[in-house]
Write a structure and sequence with these properties.
The chain is 83% helix and 0% strand. By secondary structure, it is mainly α.
């Protein structure tokens, strides 16, 4: 990895780690609190509300936050123009969402929470547009700081609403809404974004350019939502809210790996976009980073699977402990979520977001079909397996078609070996993880995975650290 590119990627990753991973880690360690103050049925409902909001969010803002980020991150563009026009599109989208919000009344399950859903969506979109712009223009420390602030506000408000006012589901969701709103105000004032919003730069042409990039991302996001979240609605409908509460809690553990992916992806998009003008250099950069990425993801996913009972014992209330059995398969699924995300960044970098659309559609179709077959038979475990297969299917298709847009080494043999190793770990842990025999086998396979991938991790870290030392000297 070349010195300047490696240092830049490392620097951005470390900053985002402070801003996101530390923050999200705090949320993970709040799980004992949530599972103590919310029953499994209440936790299920809270999870379904927030995930419904996450489905509506890209629809309501037309996906413009990603467009703002991608365009404002370019070196030679009128950044204020993209922020101004992106903000206007968000306002138009929010107005349309408000006009259509009475349609939410058709969902009886959410009758008492429609007002909360509306506030959640609008606050989240405001936060996303402002934070993504700040990140794109290079104010990464502010971006990291606002992430810490957002988490701190969420935690404090959760404690106030759940313990102080005993507000249950409403308190859990409302704390997220208020945290987003207050963080948006903070970013808007500190970054002086009122100076970046310039009405004279409102342009129909710029809006069309943004929409051309963003609109394919909206259905793509919806399809990813279907792949990653629809199973929870189906488990709640086909089995029970109680089992879905366990399943939703189990999903939080592999989220640790998702946070690593999100942090790296934020830093990676900044670095990849800066290299996008020279396709050959960009492909070389992808090759160098992907080998390291594979090693971290598979070792991390295997470790989460092997330690699933330990995490459940520490982070869940006793009534949620049975959820550990879903963690191994979900950890394996999360590894392929990470790989799909990395390959998807190619479409983002080369501005071919329509390809991301149809590959994510494939994952959604596979996921729903398998859920309808497997959940009635195996409950939430069937949903876990369906999730893994659908993410794996998307990876196969993206890997097979990637050469049309950027040719870089996908390390097929290395990936196949890692897939077998994590598959063995997930299977053994799910079936025999509560026995010493199962733990020993899974731990042994994890050790093999660590040895197999360890060299790549060590070599890459040495390259990055030596680059940092040369820069300091």
């Amino acid at each position: 990895m070349k010195q300047s590119r490696g240092i830049k990627l490392l620097s951005n990753t470390l900053i985002f780690t402070v801003g996101k991973f530390v923050s999200k880690l705090i949320v993970i360690f709040m799980l004992p609190f949530y599972t103590s103050y919310l029953s499994s049925a209440e936790y299920s409902t809270s999870d379904l509300i927030t995930n419904l909001c996450n489905l509506i969010i890209p629809l309501a803002c037309l996906g413009v936050s990603e467009g703002i980020f991608r365009n404002a991150a370019d070196k030679s563009v009128d950044k204020e123009s993209f922020f101004t026009n992106g903000a206007m599109l968000m306002i138009f989208g929010s107005a349309g969402f408000l006009a259509l919000s009475p349609l939410l009344n058709f969902f009886d399950y959410f009758d008492a929470y429609i007002w909360l859903i509306i506030l959640y969506v609008i606050a989240s979109n405001m936060h996303s547009v402002c934070s993504q712009y700040v990140c794109a223009i290079g104010r990464t420390k502010l971006f990291a700081g606002q992430g810490v602030l957002n988490t701190a506000l969420t935690v404090v408000l959760n404690i106030i609403f759940l313990v102080g006012f005993n507000m249950g589901i409403i308190g859990y969701v409302l704390s997220i809404v208020l945290a987003d709103f207050l963080t948006t105000v903070f970013v808007f004032l500190v970054a002086k974004l009122y100076r970046a919003f310039i009405p004279s730069k409102i342009s129909r042409a710029v809006m069309k350019d943004l929409l051309r990039f963003c609109l394919p991302l909206v259905p793509s996001t919806i399809f990813w939502w279907i792949t990653g979240v629809s199973d929870r609605y189906l488990v709640a409908a086909m089995v029970s809210d109680e089992e879905n509460g366990l399943y939703a809690a189990a999903y939080k553990i592999p989220t640790l790996l998702t946070y690593v992916v999100t942090i790296f992806n934020d830093a990676w998009k900044l670095s990849a976009v800066s290299e996008s003008e020279d396709r050959s250099k960009c492909a070389e950069f992808y090759t160098q980073v992907y080998k390291y990425y594979i090693a971290i993801m598979f070792v991390g996913g295997g470790a989460l699977a092997v330690c699933s009972q330990l995490f459940a014992k520490i982070l869940f209330a006793d009534s949620y402990f049975a959820a550990w059995v879903f963690i191994p398969v979900l950890s394996a699924a999360t590894v392929f979520t990470a790989l799909d995300t990395f390959l998807g960044s190619v479409y983002f970098t080369v501005k071919r977001t329509q390809v991301s659309l149809w590959t994510s559609l494939l994952g959604a179709i596979v996921n729903v079909a398998l859920n309808l077959v497997m959940i009635p038979e195996w409950g939430a475990m069937g949903a876990s397996i369906a999730t893994f297969i659908s993410y794996f299917a998307v990876y196969i298709v993206r890997a097979a078609t990637m050469g049309r847009f950027m040719r870089f080494n996908l390390y097929h043999v290395r990936l196949a070996i890692n897939t077998v190793l994590i598959g063995v770990i997930a299977t053994v842990m799910s079936l025999y993880g509560d026995t010493l025999y199962g733990l020993l086998i899974s731990g042994g396979v994890l050790l093999v995975s660590l040895i197999f991938n360890g060299r790549d991790i060590v070599i890459t870290l040495k390259q990055i650290l030596s680059g940092v030392k040369r820069r300091k000297s």
